[in-house]
Design brief:
Blueprint lengths: L15 E5 L4 H11 L3 E6 L19 E5 L7 H10 L3 E4 L5 H5 L3 H7 L4 E6 L14 H7 L19 H26 L3 E6 H8 L1 H8 L19 E5 L5 E5 L3 H11 L14 H12 L4 H8 L6 E3 L10 H6 L2 E4 L2 E4 L23 H7 L17
Parallel strand pairs: 1-2, 1-4, 2-3, 4-5, 5-6
Antiparallel strand pairs: 7-8, 8-9, 10-11
C-alpha cells in the first residue's frame, strides 16, 4: 500500500487543509477535499483513532498525507498552530470546547491565520441542550424525523448504514460550508468558523418532504407515500432466487413500459386508483417471484421502465455501466469508488492509498515549512 506523497491535480490544487484526526464524517469530508486536489495533512494522534480497521484499508484517508502529533505534549498545540498558519482550511470533529482546551480552537488558530476557514463537524452542533452529549449517526437522524420515514409500515425503521447522517447530512454539508467560506475568505481576507451539525444537514435533506407534508401530499408515517415504498411502482421486489429488483416507474410512460415488460398491461389503470394499489403490489410481487434477478435484469435491459437489479457491494463495480464510466477504480489492489464529481478542465484521480499514520511527517515538514514537526516531542504535557 502506498501513501500520497505530493498533492495532485484537481480544482482544489494549491489549497492546503489540516485535518485533526477523528472518525466518521470528518475524515470523509477531508477525503473529498483531497480527491478534489487539496493538499490534506491529517494530524493523527499517537496510537490512532481506535477505529478497529487496518489503516492501510481506510479509504477515507486516501489522497492525504499524515503526521503524528500528541496534542497533550508540551509543544503539541504549537505544531498544529504552525500548520494552521500555513493552511487555508482546518477541519476538526471534537465535542464542543475540546479543541479550545487543547489549544487549537478557532481563536488560537485565527490569531495565527486570520483568513483560515475553521470547519467544525459534530452531530448535535456547537450549541443546544445536546451539544455536549455523545451520539452517532442513528441518533441524529432519529431526532430529525429522517429515520422514522424509512422502512416498512408494519416494521421497525430501516437503518440506512451511516450514509444519511454522517456522510450526506454531515460530511457533504461541511464541504459545502468550507468551500463557501473559502470563497469568502479569498475575496475578503477574513476567515470564519463553519458549524456543520449532522442534525442540521439531515433535517435540510428532507426539505422537499416537509413541503409535501405541509401541502397534504405526504403522510407522516412510513410506507404510505410515493417515495417511501408505499407506492407499488416505487420500491423493491424479491425474485425467485431471493434477490431483489428495484422499481422506480413513477411517470406514466415509464409505468406503462414497466407493466408491459412485466406482462401485466391490464393493470395500467391501477396507477391512479389508490384503492387498487394492494392488488397491484400483489400482482407485481408474484410476477417478480417467477424469475431470478438476473433474468429480470435481462428483460428490462435497454428499456425506460426505470427498473434495476439490486446489486451487492462486491457486484456493483462489475456492472457494465459503472465499469464503462470508471465509477469504481483500483489502487494498490484496493477496489474503491473513484473521486466524484468529474471535471472537464481539472480532472481528479486516486493519487495515493490511505495515508499511514505519521508516514509523511518529513515531507510535510519540508513542503509546509514546519520544522517543528520533526523535533522530539516525547515529553508529556499535563492534560487540560
Amino acid at each position: 500500500m502506498t501513501t500520497a506523497k505530493t498533492p495532485g491535480q484537481g480544482p482544489l490544487a494549491g489549497v492546503r487543509v489540516v485535518e485533526l484526526a477523528g472518525i466518521g464524517p470528518g475524515p470523509f469530508a477531508a477525503m473529498l477535499l483531497a480527491d478534489l486536489g487539496a493538499d490534506v495533512v491529517r494530524v493523527d494522534r499517537p496510537g490512532g483513532p481506535g477505529l478497529g480497521i487496518d489503516p492501510a484499508y481506510d479509504i477515507t484517508n486516501r489522497n492525504k498525507r499524515s503526521v503524528v502529533v500528541d496534542l497533550k505534549s508540551p509543544d503539541g498545540p504549537a505544531r498544529v498552530l504552525d500548520l494552521a498558519a500555513r493552511a487555508d482550511v482546518l477541519i476538526e470533529g471534537y465535542r464542543p470546547g475540546v479543541a479550545e482546551r487543547l489549544g487549537v480552537g478557532p481563536e488560537d488558530c485565527h490569531a495565527r491565520n486570520p483568513a483560515l476557514v475553521y470547519g467544525r463537524m459534530t452531530g448535535w452542533g456547537q450549541e443546544g441542550p445536546l451539544a455536549h452529549r455523545a451520539g452517532h449517526d442513528i441518533a441524529y437522524i432519529a431526532l430529525t424525523g429522517t429515520l422514522g420515514m424509512i422502512g416498512a409500515p408494519d416494521g421497525s425503521p430501516a437503518v440506512p448504514a451511516n450514509l444519511v447522517g454522517d456522510y450526506a447530512g454531515g460530511s457533504l454539508y461541511l464541504v459545502v460550508g468550507v468551500l463557501a467560506a473559502l470563497h469568502h475568505a479569498r475575496a475578503t481576507g477574513t476567515g470564519q468558523v463553519v458549524d456543520a451539525a449532522i442534525v442540521d444537514g439531515a433535517a435540510h435533506l428532507a426539505s422537499m418532504i416537509h413541503g409535501m407534508l405541509a401541502a397534504g401530499g405526504w403522510q407522516d408515517r412510513r410506507g404510505a407515500n410515493l417515495l417511501d415504498g408505499g407506492c407499488p411502482y416505487y420500491g423493491t421486489y424479491e425474485t425467485a432466487d431471493g434477490r431483489y429488483m428495484a422499481v422506480g416507474a413513477l411517470e406514466s410512460r415509464f409505468y406503462d413500459e414497466f407493466l408491459g415488460l412485466l406482462g401485466l398491461p391490464e393493470l395500467a389503470p391501477a396507477r391512479e386508483d389508490l384503492t387498487r394499489w394492494g392488488e397491484l403490489r400483489e400482482a407485481v410481487a408474484a410476477r417478480f417471484k417467477s424469475r431470478t434477478r438476473d433474468e429480470w435484469a435481462a428483460v428490462f435491459e435497454g428499456s425506460d421502465a426505470c427498473v434495476a437489479p439490486v446489486l451487492s457491494l462486491r457486484e456493483a463495480p462489475h456492472h457494465p455501466h459503472l465499469a464503462a464510466r470508471g465509477t469504481f477504480t483500483d489502487h494498490g489492489g484496493l477496489t474503491q469508488p473513484a473521486p466524484a464529481p468529474r471535471f472537464s478542465a481539472t480532472p481528479t484521480a486516486v493519487r495515493g492509498g490511505p495515508a499511514l499514520p505519521g508516514a509523511d511527517t518529513a515531507d510535510v515538514a519540508r513542503d509546509w515549512d514546519v520544522p517543528r514537526l520533526t523535533t522530539d516531542h516525547s515529553a508529556p504535557r499535563n492534560p487540560r
